[in-house]
Amino acid sequence: MDTTAETRLIRHLVETPDSAIPASALAAARRFMVDALAVGLAGSAHPAQPGMIAAAGRWGGGEEASVWGEAIALPAPQAAFVNAFQAHALEFDAIHEAAVVHAMTPVLAAALAEAERAGGVSGTRLLGAVVLGLDLACTIGAAARGAMRFFRPATAGMFGAYGAVARLRGLDAATAAAGAGLLLGQIPGTMQAHHEGSVALAVQMGFAAAAGFRAADLAQAGLAGPAAWLTGPSGFLAMTEPEHDIAPGLAALGRDWQVERLSHKPFPSGRLTHPAIDGVQRILAQGAVETARVYEVRLLLPPLAMRLVGRPLVPGLTANYARLCLPYVVATTLRFGTVGLQDFTAPRLVDADTLALAAHVAMLPDGSTDQNAVVPQVVEIAMADGALHRAEVQATIGSPENPLSDAAQRAKAEACAAAARHPMPPARLYEMARLVERLASLPDAAVLGRALRTA
């Protein structure tokens, strides 16, 4: 019996019965699907979105799947491309912290587009494809042990998108394995986009979602990629994550469901900024900080935070850069008590008081060696009179260890729907959420995609 990592992952993907997925995993899937769809609606207002749609429209005609928050449909791969872009464009989409992968974004974008394209896909099958696609993406992403060299949300996320499409198409293990190998030549995810705060980060998430369709189409046409696509000497892990250990993830297949390890993002900024925001909020709640008397804010950060969001304040801040800039995000929290979508608009990005306060933020390595840890993070606020306020965050807000309340999840979804290019009224948002909640009873999940279109 073939026991390679590739075979075990593919068999788990295509042979696990929907009935084997526990109720807790299905509930988590529904919860994070609503979050992803709402965030995708908000992302329709990103300035680059019209250009994305225009470009995607040149890649082929047809109306197979909805563009979230718009009145149009595109061929399924193009719709998935645009929707995954929208869902990541505002840095508001859920994340699997251990994998450092925004896995729901490309997985759901691809799965829902495929369900619309095919028609007659039951809600139960859609849920299963999302859960198993997430298992594939997060197991691969969580194998990393070294510093991130490629943009893992897109690279590992691509496998999840493919997994969802392959499962919905009912591919057998041999065909699904052939398609997985065909993903290697499509790896999206340079970290240079992250370093520069470029919109290309979100575009790469679109590439990840669309790649799943190309690989599945080619596999069904009889083509096959390398068999050792994951663990070969030039396979995915060797190329992108040379320091890795896939064994724990393989051992957890069918026992631990990765959808239950997803984390909400309550703030539209890089996940590694969330513990610092939380720490500042805890100190502000004590009522002892006047921002005018702040002498210095010191952030003690793990290596991942230093690399991903420990970037300096620069002149001419753009929204994409500022979302990943701790000095700006921390100063914003100190001034306004939180971080919201409005804090990345042009007036806020040039606010002199915020920028002056951001200049007092110092980012220091905490001496830890885990290259993929999000927490702990420590916030110290030194006042001009010598007083020192300190908060240590051990569990990121929105994580399974420190989850968002149902009320906070609803408030986030409402804010996202209201921020869309074509704002979605609360009644329609709740209708969409109810469709997700009763997915298991829907004979055709395409109704969910259509509910995301504007009138």
UniProtKB/TrEMBL annotation:
Residues 267-419 form the MmgE/PrpD C-terminal domain. Pfam families: MmgE_PrpD_C (PF19305), MmgE_PrpD_N (PF03972). InterPro entries: MmgE/PrpD_sf, MmgE/PrpD_sf_1, MmgE/PrpD_sf_2, MmgE_PrpD, MmgE_PrpD_C, MmgE_PrpD_N. Coiled coil: none annotated. It comes from the Bacteria. Residues 13-245 form the MmgE/PrpD N-terminal domain. Belongs to the PrpD family. This is MmgE/PrpD family protein. It comes from Roseomonas fluvialis.
